[in-house]
Amino acid sequence: MAKSYVLFVVIGVVVGAALAPVAWDAAESDGTVAVVPLAGSIDGGARPRSRR
Length: 52
Hints:
By secondary structure, the protein is mostly helical. The chain has one helix spanning about 1-25. It starts with a helix and ends in a 25-residue tail after the last helix. The model has no long low-confidence stretch (mean pLDDT about 80).
């Protein structure tokens, strides 16, 4: 049973190491960012609940 866990971990590490360069290349940008204006507050402007 423990061998199967080790096998899955080893497979995950190998696949992750193989896909890491692809993900790194996809994540690179030219330095531009998106600026999104937000209105309201974190709770969506809802009224606070009354405590009972």
